[in-house]
Amino acid sequence: MNMLLTSLDLLVIVFMVLASVSLLALSLMFLVRNPRIKKVCFYIVALLGIYMGYVGFRIGSGLFPVQTALGVLVAVAAIASIVLALTCKNNEKKFKIARLVAAGSLIVGFANAFMI
């Protein structure tokens, strides 16, 4: 039996992989006590937020100006969270704010790219 994957099948596979990686990185970022693992998960979440902003921008460009603007805002928020994390040396409160901003940008970007 031959199984060929169509473009829609591949999109569903990419969606499931992105959703599972995002959920795993988000939960580890807030639940793990090891600061090194927190930082690694933070950067994964922030990079996924930038990617989701890019996907929302590319999907909405041209016909959907609100979705395009939201994609740009998501990417800018994720970049701002990275900058905040890099500038707050040994300040746990600012790093927590950076983690919250990165998590919010990933969630909003994911909803913008795939749900809305």
TrEMBL record:
Keywords: Membrane, Plasmid, Transmembrane, Transmembrane helix. The chain crosses the membrane at residues 12-33, 40-57, 63-85, 97-115. It comes from the Bacteria. This is Uncharacterized protein.
